[in-house]
Amino acid sequence: MALSAPGIGSSLDVNGIVGQLMAVERRPLSQLNAKEAGLQGKISALGMLKGVLSALQTAAGGLVPATGQTAAEKFTSFKAAVADTSVLTASASRSVAAGTYSIETLALAREQRLVTAANPGIEAGAQTITIELGSVSGGVFTPKAGTSPITVALDGSNNTLEGIRDAINAKNEGVTASIINAADGQRLVLASKASGAENQVRVTGGITALNYDPTAPVSYDEGTPPAVMSELQSAQNASAKVNGITVSSATNVFSEVVTGLSFTIQKAAASTTVSVSRDTGSLKSSLEALVKAYNDANKAMRDLGSYDPQTKKAGPLNGDAALRTSQNQLRSALSSAQDTGGAYTRLSDIGITFQTDGSLKLDATKLQAAIDADFETVAKLASGIGETVKAAADGLLGSGGAVTARTDGINASIKDIGKRREALELRMISIEKRYRAQFTALDTLVSSMTQTSNFLAQQLANLPKVGG
Fold first, then answer.
1. DSSP assignment letter at 212
2. pLDDT digit string (tens) for 247-260?
């Protein structure tokens, strides 16, 4: 097998020569790589632009009413202020009427609790207990709608207080059972899980000591225990007076007893007032969010398109058409006049104005004064601007939009560079192979000529000298 060591015979630096020639040949590749790096920088910059435009798009969308909703409805909310929060807490919805409500709490809601006598006698053998929830009216027990009787089957293995307790709790329905170890013995306590007069308990079955009839209630008397269960605590609705009118609830929560107003009482026999007023914070905060999102976008766009004449350094999107289009369309959208039917038609009318650097400045005092003076018109203006700015952002970011089209175009260029680089790499392999073949042949020729020259020099040196 022949060994190749270019340059050994001729002292010709074949590898060095080929390397230098290939460095020249590879210059187009370096240019392609530099161009690709620049395009990748633009892709990154366009990604940043998309991010701030998307944030602005979201903020603008927050000003747009839902389908079938008016601008005023979009931003109208009410807040409930309670004079004494130790008495109750309250919340208001959009349907409430603004004003002051006087509330007097009469009673808290309670769940019913029943108790057996100490160490009650339990009939031996298999027994069945039936527990029902319901209400009593006119001496008649009416089962609670949507509930079914709880049937507990007992046998010789669990007809003890502990067995009865566990069997009831295993049902995990409308009542709970527990055992109290009193001074005079064990007592079984049943409690309804839910409060209110509609959650009274009726117990029937073969165990006499556990029976209870709410139509003939037996009050608890520790000194004179009855043969059946007695009532430790009666079931009770919460009750209150709102502006002098009595209202009732199965729980301590009163939902919509006044349209749009709900409250939860926390103690009985107390009174306080609830003041309901329109909350304009939603409209103001939504406009503040739009201003912030635009200012963030404006700063990002200025940085991306910047140029420093001293350092001669330009931003990655300096002179880029997509950036200029974005800046122009957004500024135009925010400057547009809206058909509000009132005195406020532009953002500048309510204290939101452009500054010399392209950012927006919000005059909170002027904005609040406009909201207080004509809430509905400001709401219409805000929703109109929101729709206009969102439409502009949708267009820029959507399929075929300026930013998306620019991004797609650059990605296509990067892909083309990749193909051209692959072709050049293949060409470089062929060129290097040719150069090596040429200089290897030259190396061989020079080596051969050197050997011939050395041979002739030896022969001439061995010739006899003339006249010697």
1. B
2. 999 999 999 889 99
pLDDT in tens, 115-156: 999 999 888 788 899 999 999 999 999 999 999 999 999 887
Q: Which long-range contacts (CB under 8 A, 24 or more apart) does 178-184 make?
A: 180/115, 182/118, 184/118, 184/119
Six token digits for residue 382 = 């805000």
Could you tell me which residues come within 8 angstroms of residue 205 by beta carbon, excluding any fewer than 6 positions away?
A: 127, 128, 129, 130, 152, 211
Q: How many domains does the chain have?
A: 2
As a residue count, the chain comes to 468
Q: Which of these, 380, 364, 295, lies nearest to 331 by C-alpha position?
A: 295
Same domain, 140 and 43: no
- Verify that 322 and 399 share a domain, yes or no: yes
> In the listed set 199, 233, 267, which residue is the last one of a domain according to the structure?
233
* Domain identity same for 69 and 117: no
Distance CA 250, CA 239 (A): 9
Residue 249 maps to a domain: no
Domain range for 329 is 34-73+281-406
CA distance readout (Å), 451 to 421, 454, 458: 44, 5, 11
Q: Does some domain include residue 24? A: no
Contacts 24+ apart (CB under 8 A), 178-187: 180/115, 182/118, 184/118, 184/119, 185/118, 185/119, 186/118, 186/119, 186/161, 187/115, 187/116, 187/117, 187/118, 187/120
Give the residue among 284, 322, 267, 260 at the shortest CA–CA distance from 48. Answer: 322
The answer on 144 and 217 residing in a single domain is yes
Confidence of residue 466 (pLDDT cuts 50, 70, 90): low
Sign of the alpha-carbon torsion through 260, 262, 268, 271: negative
Q: Is residue 368 part of a domain?
A: yes
Euclidean distance between CA atoms 18 and 76, whole angstroms? 79
* 367 assigned to some structural domain: yes
What's the pTM value of the predicted model, to 2 decimals? 0.63
Paired with 360 in beta bridges are: 354
Distance in angstroms (rounded) separating the CA atoms of residues 246 and 237: 12
Residue 236, CB-side half-sphere exposure with 13 Å CA sphere: 15
Q: Are residues 123 and 201 in the same domain?
A: yes
The DSSP call for residue 219 is B
- C-alpha 249: how far from chain center: 35
Alpha-carbon distance values, 315 to 40, 137, 141, 303 (Å)? 14, 82, 82, 6
Angle at alpha carbon of residue 109, lines to 107 and 114, rounded to 5°: 120
Q: HSE (CB half, 13 Å, CA atoms) of 166?
A: 8
In a shared domain, residues 193 and 286 = no
Which residues make beta-bridge pairs with 115? Answer: 189, 230
